[in-house]
Amino acid sequence: MKVWGYFIPLDDEMVIFSGHTRRYNDSPRTLYEYMLAHPEKFGRYKCVWALEDPENVDIPGNPIKVKSDTPKYFKYTLKAKYWVTCVNIERSLHYKKRKCRYLNTWHGTAFKHIGNDAGVRKDFDFSSVDYFCYASEYEKKIYMNAFRTREDAMIPTGLPRNDELYHVTPNEIGSLKDKLGLPRDKKIILYAPTWRESTDNGKTCAIKPPINTKKWETELKDNYIILFRMHAYTNQLLGLEFNDTIRDYSAYPNVNDLFKVADILISDYSASMSDYAILERPVLCFTYDYEQYRDERGLYLDFDKDMPSGILRTEDDVLKYIKNMDYEKECEKTRIMIKEKLIHLGGHATEMCLVKLFEK
């Protein structure tokens, strides 16, 4: 790759974006759309998007689209002076040019082990990253250890994708409920579990939450609507049946809209818990496989002590917690235990990242 790079001149006005190496999403999308909305500052830049299925993804602004992990993709990475990703542009290779500027926003607070802390692979090395976003000292310490990022590359910005969550208004929430077909006279629960490791060498990434949807409907239908949101890496959902009370919003493109309308979040080990905590609303940890997940994947926190709801192991625990909670106290626990501790930086990350990336 380095030898090939000698024959491909660097384009000082080209930016390549990669959101999870597969989709038009996450903080790279937020940064790209900000650039698109401010042509007086960024109109001269040529933008490239790396996608798993570029022919079937609509992106505003007519950027160049390229299929991830192909020779053409690597050619663009060698050509572009600016790299923007939330995972890894180099795809475990190490060939970044000296004058190339690399921004990695990452994609959420680490509750479960990541990088060199997880599994058997210990070769994560992001020392070539020029700017790496973090939202708290808790995150900074983990990223520097798990990815070998340089301390002088760490920038205290928070995530660009989360900026909008700091500026939500009641009118916006009402409009979103109308758009999503949700009643305004019921509380909304968002259930968004993280993905589970594949058990068949990657052919499927399945999840089967141990819940009886009919029971949830009976217990909650008078006061609540439950929105289910499957993780992007999960490709097989087992055991759930949807109805008027429990609705599937896995295909809805903007998860922040779901955060905004939700009065309560149910999750497990997902970074969505810290994203949602920006809104200072109740976070419930339905960790039915806690010991197994902790021992096999590894966790940075003791959920029984460090999370607002502690560990809720069964659907009965979850339903009881919802029906008996003091809502205002739960909001306060989320603010103190997650927002102030794990994600206290943010709100203007988009502008801060772009200033850093393009500064002279």
Task: Report on the architecture of this protein.
- The structure is a single chain.
- The protein is an alpha/beta fold and 360 residues long.
- Helices cover 33% and strands 16% of the residues.
- A seven-stranded parallel β-sheet has the order 3-2-1-4-5-6-7, with helices on both faces. The chain has a five-stranded parallel β-sheet with strand order 12-10-8-13-14. Strands 9-11 form a two-stranded parallel sheet.
- Strand 6 (131-134), helix 5 (137-147) and strand 7 form a beta-alpha-beta unit.
- Helix 2 (26-37) crosses helix 14.
- It is globular, with a radius of gyration of 21 Å.
- The relative contact order is 0.13.
Salient structural properties:
alpha/beta; 5-stranded parallel beta sheet; about 350 residues
Mean pLDDT: 93
List low-pLDDT spans. none
| Tally of helical segments | 14
Largest β-sheet summary: 7 strands, parallel
Provide the β-strand percentage band: 15-25%
Helix fraction, binned, reads: 25-40%
What is the string of SSEs from the N terminus onward?
Answer: HEHHEEHEEEHEHEEHEEEHEHEHHHHH
- Cα radius of gyration in angstroms: 21 Å
* Quantity of strands, as a count: 14
User: What structural class do you assign from the helix and strand content?
Assistant: alpha/beta
Cα distance spanning the termini:
27 Å
- How would you describe the oligomerization state of the chains in this entry? single chain
Shape: globular
Question: What's the topology here?
Answer:
Elements: H1 2-6, E1 11-18, H2 26-37, H3 39-42, E2 46-51, E3 64-67, H4 71-79, E4 80-85, E5 101-104, E6 131-134, H5 137-147, E7 154-156, H6 170-180, E8 187-191, E9 206-207, H7 213-220, E10 224-228, E11 236-237, E12 246-248, H8 255-261, E13 264-267, H9 272-277, E14 283-285, H10 290-296, H11 303-306, H12 315-324, H13 327-342, H14 349-358
Parallel strand pairs: 1-2, 1-4, 2-3, 4-5, 5-6, 6-7, 8-10, 8-13, 9-11, 10-12, 13-14
Helix pairs in contact: 2-14
